[in-house]
Amino acid sequence: MSVSMPLQTPTSLMSRTRPQLLLHNYPPTYNQKYLCPKSLLRKRDHHLHQFPTPLRTFKCSSQRQSADGQAQEYEFERLFSNLNRTTLKREPGSLSSAIFLVAGTTVGAGILAIPAVTQESGFLASAVACILCWIFMVATGLLIAEVNVNTMCELGSGGVSLVSMARRTLGPVGVQIACWSYIFIHYALLVAYVARSSDILTNYLGIPLWESSTLFSLVCGGICYFGSQRFIGAVNGVLVFGIIASFTALVAVASGGLEWDALLKANFEAVPISIPIIALSFVYQNVVPVLCTNLEGNISKVRTAIVLGTAIPLGLFLVWDAVILGSISNLEMGSDKMIDPLQQLRSSNGVVGPIIEVFSLLAIATSYIGFVLGLSDFLADLLKLPTGENRPQPYLLTLIPPIGLALLDPEIFFKALDFAGTYGVLVLFGILPAAMSWSDRYSSSSTSFKPPELVPGGRLTLTLVMGCAGCVILTEILENFGHP
Fold first, then answer.
1. What pLDDT, on the 0 to 100 scale, is given for residue 64?
2. Which of 11, 54, 162, 208 has its CB surrounded by the most CB atoms within 10 Å?
3. From CA 113, how far away is CA 93, in angstroms rounded?
4. Which residues contact 405 (CB under 8 A, 6 or more apart)?
5. Where is 440: in which H helix or E strand?
């Protein structure tokens, strides 16, 4: 049966995002589909005495026993509601904006390096590697979402970052690993994005590097700081459509000289060296906590946003790799110096160069916005800033250091990408999500209720995720440091 339940506004349970959280007053029993542990209900009941006036009613659902012993079912769509602090009106995040946020975050600078690292393995082998990496990264993103929603429910607040998740599931050791890995990867990639974007803007605008890097950071950072959820989603949507348009133009121009026989090349022995960069290209997990809060803990929408939001970049990556590798013949391989196929394509086709630059700038901008949102939310949680307020400190700490490092070494782009992809991404977004989910599902110290499992397979799947990431990391360590 369905019932409308009154909702209350506990002021201490506000989200870190601008809209406040409105917790649902549904019957006090855990529902297997959506989350409602007793610890959250206790916090909610405490605040019901302070705020007894119902503000609005929503259709909720759970299960409980009636007086005659029959099970009664109540339906509800979300864990909480996002409220505007001024109007007290609900501001739910839209599914389309969530998909664009994931897609925009995923399509970043990594795509620019894919042809260079896959030229030796060939398109066919690299396509298999891309699909397998996509499945792997979707699984780890869903694991993060599972732990994040469960942590929000247990702590009774939104805006839960990776630190809070690691502290709850893995303890102090997990917190240290998560903190330093998260900070390192995000700063490394933000440095790479600022360095590459400033180079593009300097070439087109004719201004110094420090002005172009500052301009790019201020514009994108200002969108993140001042923009609402809907505005940021709209900006990401425009950027993603711009990426698709420039990408379509690039494919139309460059595919004229496509050599179809070259696409059948497959050297699977060379695939392992390309996996770190391919995995880096699929990084979006940093915005999953923001995603879960914006979508009000609606697990079905979160799952859809992650799968569809990463499927769009997968298609782009495959077509991009096919066009570049199929258009360039006589690639130089086997030497210590890697030849960039994009540079060869620019030199051989004058029309392609500007299109590649536009595509690159838009791809970097979408990913930069996602990383700024994720890192600023992470730093706010790490600094224990008051929730429900948009403080400037996390944004300043997020934006300023990458500008300085990018100006110190303008050639740092590929260095930052390589190091972050090899030794950071597979730890933070590979091993750690599986370890947190393992603790959340099977630890004896976990709560009595069982969270919904977004990734099937139980212990076997979690073991495979951690094992695959560990093997790639070990292989790279042996490859880079095992030879005299």
1. 45
2. 162
3. 33
4. 187, 191, 412
5. helix 432-442
435-439 long-range contacts, CB within 8 A, separation 24+: 435/169, 435/170, 435/174, 435/466, 436/143, 436/144, 436/147, 436/165, 436/166, 436/169, 436/170, 436/174, 437/143, 437/146, 437/147, 437/169, 437/462, 438/462, 439/169, 439/170
The 10s digit of each residue's pLDDT in 167-197 is 888 989 888 888 888 888 888 888 888 888 8
Rounded distance between C-alpha atoms, residue 333 and residue 112, angstroms: 18
- Provide the 8-state DSSP code for 424: I
Q: Which helix (H) or strand (E) holds 234?
A: helix 229-254
E strands, 50-167, are 56-60, 63-65, 71-73, 80-83
- Dist CA 317 CA 409 (whole Å): 28
**What is 263-304 written as a DSSP string?**
GG---GGGSGGGHHHHHHHT--GGGHHHHHHHTTT-HHHHHH
CB-count burial class (<10 Å; 0-12, 13-18, 19+) for 132 = middle
Structure pTM? 0.72
Q: Are the C-beta atoms of 45 and 36 separated by less than 8 Å?
A: no
Q: Which two tokens stand for residue 137?
A: 């990264």
> Quick check: 81 and 92 in contact, CB under 8 A?
yes
Per DSSP bridges, beta strands 20-23 and 80-83 are antiparallel
Q: What would the two tokens of residue 317 be?
A: 């990556």
Q: How far apart are CA 156 and CA 423, in angstroms?
A: 34
Per-residue tokens: 415: 């260095």
CA-nearest of 269, 280, 183, 180 to 479 is 269
Please report, for residues 73, 198, 212, 239, 457, the alpha-carbon distance to residue 215 in angstroms, rounded to integers and kept in the order given.
Answer: 54, 8, 5, 17, 47
Q: Among 283, 250, 237, which Cα is nearest to 110's?
A: 283
* Token pair belonging to 30: 């855990």
Of the ranges 48-52, 209-213, 359-363, 480-484, which one carries the lowest mean pLDDT score?
Answer: 48-52
CA distance 266 to 18: 50
Q: CB–CB of 19/231 below 8 Å?
A: no
Q: Which of 247-261, 295-309, 376-390, 409-423 has the lowest mean pLDDT?
A: 409-423
